[in-house]
Structures are given as C-alpha cells and as structure tokens.
C-alpha cells in the first residue's frame, strides 16, 4: 500500500522533529513546513493525506488567528483534505472556530501519541470511504438500477426466472458464488451480465466489501492505467490530484470488468500482471500496492476465437476463466419477457410518477415476438419510453415504438428513407448486432464506427 503523506505545519523545530519520528515509526511519510507561505506552497505542489496544523506562528503567537486563516486557505486548495489543528493555547472558542472553518479534529500540546495516530487513521479512512462512495456512484450511474440497492429477490425479479435456462444459470451461480474464483460471463449485449455479477458478489463471502463495476469498452486507451490503477498528482498532463484506481476501490471486494474482449494486447498484458502477481503501481508512483479482489469479467465476444486469431492472450483468457457462465439472450427465453415487462412497468411508473398499471394483450404479443437485439436493456428502455408516452393507464401496441422490426430492415429497404435519421441509425445498429449474434465488437467493425462512438449509440438507443 502507498504510505500516507502527512504535512506537519509548525514553526517549532522540536515539534516537527518529534512528530516526524512518531509518524515514520507508524508507517506514515512526514513532510514539514515552518511558515504559512511554505504550507500553502507545499499543498499546491504535493498531494498529502492529512495536515497537522499549528495555529500560532511568529507573527501571532497566542490568538490562533493566523492558523485559523490558514485553514480557510487550505480548504480552498482542497476542501476534502483532513486538517487536524494543534496548539498549546487551546480554548473552546478557538476549537469551535477551527472546526467551523473546515478542520476535522483538534488536539492540544503536549499530545498523546495514541490519540494523535488514531485521529489521523480515522480521518484518512473517512476520506477514502467518501471518495469510494462518490466514485462508485458516478461509475455505476449508467446502470438502470443502482446495484448496491438491489436485494437478491429484486435481482431475481429483474432477471426473469420462469425459463428453464435462467433457473439453471441461477443454480450454477449459487454453487460457485462462495468459491473465491475468477468468473467469466459471456453472452450478448444487454443480457444482464452486470446484474448477475452483482448477484455473485452478494452471494459471496465478500458481500460486505465494495462491488466496483468498470465498462472497459467506454475507457479511452490512454486512460486505461489511470482508471484501473489510479495515478498520483502530476503523473501526466491533467493529473491535478491523486486518483484512486478501481483495483484500490475494490480492495477486499469484487471487481467487475465488463467488455473485457475490447482490451488491446498492451492492456491485456498489464491486467495479466496484476492478476498473476496480485500487485500494481499507480501511474506516476514507484510504490507497489497489493490487490486483493475477486474478479468477475464479462464479454459478448468469442474469446476462444480471438485467442486463435491472436487478438486475445491465451494466458489471460485462462486466468479470468476459472469458470465460464453463458447468459442467454432474451430470444432464448421468451417466457420471461411478459414477467420482465411488468417488472419494468412497475419500476418506471413509480419512478416517473405515472399511473400506468398494465400492458394489454396485443402489446404483450408484440413484445414476445420482437427479436430484441439489445436484449433486457432494450426491453427496459422500451417499457420506460412507453410509460412516458402512454396517455391512459394501459400500454398498448402503438405505445411500444416497435412497429419496424430490425430483422426486416436493411439499407436496401426503401421504407428506411421514410423515417427519421435517428430511427434509421437505430435500425442499422440493431441489424448489425443481430447479424453479429450480439457481438458488439464485430458489429462496431461492420459499421465502421470508433469504439467510443459505437458504445455511445448503444447507450443512447438502449441496446
């Protein structure tokens, strides 16, 4: 793990020396500053984990105002940085004012070593937890439901469990979830691999630890290492502060790597090294961090074919594939479609505060007969759109927007010229996905789109 940097800000050489020795013995890296100007200069250049801040300097040795003003300046530089103030002139008034301006805690000189170390560890841990929650919320916002709020019963509802293929899949998941092994989920785009990954996590011994989801298809190649392993401030242009990578966020928990088939050979080598050696270094750092995670990977590509064509490393394939589970397409489990549609109806009626209560029989028949190239994700978007545009309390066939079947639409069909460009674009992408049997990477190449452009359209159209 990276050693935590603590800035000791005090004009007393004896204090700085004593604290530096204490922090070093406790596994911290101490930095020191003697004047307000030096403190600000260090914080503008260095990334630190906490500040031990004296409130009195040579210009003001008793009131603490110089230190209080410093707190306000530090907060402007980094509002999340834990500041622990210390002074030999402690009063309740000064302590309250220090906390009001942004300090996290307060100690008096002479300090008790155990309490000081305890405060530092607590504040750094609280900051890390806050950062984890913020990043997890941002990175999982693309999921239709917040996975961390799903119970196992709800997961079952959204997956649809009437079909034999889904019941068999859930049985296998229950058998292997407790084993601390890497799992590869395969299947078409939109089949619910993200939700199944979370279900595996929830049924594992790591359930109380973080579940971190990463869509590798949406990460630009030049940001791959930063996203997965983190970076230090100044590691590259634009790295204005330290960033926690996904491996560190998932420590002790589960890391879900979606679209793993999109990795370049260079990225595959970097991922393989972490999985083999269980360690990594953030970009710009020489300090090795350990990786204790349970890996769940997913792909809609045929990785064995890619291994044969030497576009996917064989050693990485077997490293992520202790057990492989195929998630069936929605076309393979038609009996689940009505149940899933009604689940989404209830969910989106509540979300959008609409009094839409049912789906009529003809609309259900249309849903069952539609080929669903975007699978469960497309079904979810279709029902949400229908809930929004339905004027009564019942979804009818014309509310679904499925009058044009992708299986019947090609560029050569003159009818395609009579519809809006956006709808034509969706038809082309749906047709390419169907032709590629759900393999997004192959469909992307067929359409001649860049990876980022293709995945933006998949999200836009609910595919």
In words, what does this structure look like?
Helix 3 links the parallel strand 3 (50-54) and strand 4 (83-87). This protein is of the alpha/beta class and 463 residues long. It is elongated, with a radius of gyration of 27 Å. Residues 138-153 and 404-414 have low confidence and may be disordered. It has three domains: 5-130, Response regulator (Rossmann fold), CATH 3.40.50.2300; 140-328, Rossmann fold; 332-461, Helicase, Ruva Protein, domain 3. The longest helix is centred in the N-terminal third of the chain and has 27 residues, at 113-139. It has helices spanning 13-25, 36-45, 65-77, 92-101, 113-139, 152-159, 164-176, 193-202, 224-229, 246-249, 265-277, 303-308, 314-320, 337-351, 361-369, 375-389, 421-435, 440-447, 451-461, and strands at residues 5-9, 29-33, 50-54, 83-87, 105-108, 183-186, 211-215, 254-258, 279-280, 289-290, 294-299, 323-326, 358-359, 394-395.
